[in-house]
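Handout, section B. The chain below has 280 residues.
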Amino acid sequence: MEALQDLLERVRLSESLMNDTSVSSTARIRLETTPDEDWHCLQCGEVLPWTVIPMGGRYLHRREQCRCERETARLVAEVETRELTDRTMRTWARFPVDFRRITFADVRAVRGMERAIQAAKQFAEGFSHSHDRTLIISGEVGCGKTMLAACVGNAIIARRYWVQCLNLVNYLESIRRTWGRSDAAELMPEPPSPDLGLLVLDDLGTQAQAWHHDHLYNIVNRRYMNHQAMLVTTNCRDERELLGCIGQRVLDRLLHRGDWVDITAPSYRMAEYRRRKASK
């Protein structure tokens, strides 16, 4: 499949090779007092007849698109479709706005992130429809877990797999707000689609209540039973700590086909704050 940039270049090349008198994105229409001979495209050489429609002593001339015009129109439509699909998939993925277009090339490999970056790249590069692995990225607040998850997600979206990032804190809070309401069924957030190529569970580990565990189990177990890929970010630094937050049923399914990588780098937000403070 050609890259979007290649298509744009082909469209620009096609349009540059045509002049104003021989090209239109639609069929050519002219109003003349006398009919013309067949139209000849100077670019592709195709000869097309004019359809002549009399209009009160004048003639409306119409012709079909030639080969090069049809190719240009096809390329333009393909580019527009790809751009629309790309925007739709990235918006639907629900990554933070700052991360919707981030790639691994944008990530600065600070000390303590090297192993996590390598694991994330391998996870993205090895992704396919049959990918059933789970990658767990842990680390303290602000160390870059969600950023790396977005890099993985965007790399997979670029290959036209559907991805969704589910912030578990917001998701479970949305469920709690429906309690006791008469319109609870309408307000209940939709669970992740079973057709996702990759589900990102962001901020796992703050869900200590029993009802949290039930909802988490339903999400994780469905993916696990269907052999579907997951990527998890958490502040919990080891299995024992995470076990106390999500329960054995959920942890068991995440670890069975999972790989765990820990980020030891400090918070990049605090690092930026200290740099600003020191420069004043």
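Note. The chain has two domains: 4-70, 94-275. Compare this with the example in section A.
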